[in-house]
Specification:
- A hairpin with a 6-residue loop joins β2 and β3.
- 10% of the residues are buried.
- α3 packs antiparallel against α5.
- The protein is built from five helices and four strands, in the order αβββααααβ.
- It starts with a helix and ends with a strand.
- It has 136 residues and is an alpha+beta fold.
- The radius of gyration is 24 Å and the shape is elongated.
- The longest helix is centred in the N-terminal third of the chain and has 26 residues.
- It folds into two domains: 30 residues; 98 residues, Band 7 domain (Tetrahydropterin Synthase, Chain A).
- The chain is 51% helix and 21% strand.
- Strands 1, 2, 3 and 4 form a four-stranded antiparallel β-sheet that branches.
């Protein structure tokens, strides 16, 4: 009889540990970098293709945004026309001197993020990502 009780307790303990592990790893959202929860990705649709400030050169880019919540995602969706227009202006204002800067892409990401947050009166754009980026 004692062996049966020990086996039942061991089985119940194993089941409890299994359920606890399941809850921790599968049901609780995992944190991203810096302890942040995963965000939402927004695409403006078509790739951007525009002339640079320098004659004869152009840029083609596919730009994605990571935002922290659904309400910010909805703001971006509502203002897609404004976002695309502003990005085309920013890309068209790139000069050859800008291209030669050491942190050109990083600076461009920050400029796009800061400019859009200012125009749209939001502060939840976490990242700007280039899916495609060609300058010719």
């Amino acid at each position: 009889m004692n062996k049966t009780i020990v086996v039942i307790i061991a089985v119940l303990l194993a089941i409890t540990i299994g359920i606890g592990t399941y809850i921790i790893f599968l049901l609780i959202p995992s944190s991203g970098e810096n302890g942040e929860l995963p965000g939402y990705v927004y695409s403006t649709g078509d790739k951007f293709l525009t002339n640079l400030k320098s004659d004869g050169h152009y840029i083609k880019a596919d730009i994605l945004f990571e935002v922290s919540d659904k309400s910010t995602l909805k703001i971006l969706e509502k203002n897609n026309h404004r976002i695309r227009d502003r990005i085309i202006e920013i890309l068209g204002d790139i000069s050859e001197d800008d291209l030669n800067q050491e942190d050109f892409k990083k600076n461009l990401r920050n400029l796009i993020r800061d400019d859009l947050q200012n125009i749209l009166k939001i502060d939840k754009i976490r990242g700007v990502y280039f899916n495609d980026f060609i300058i010719q």
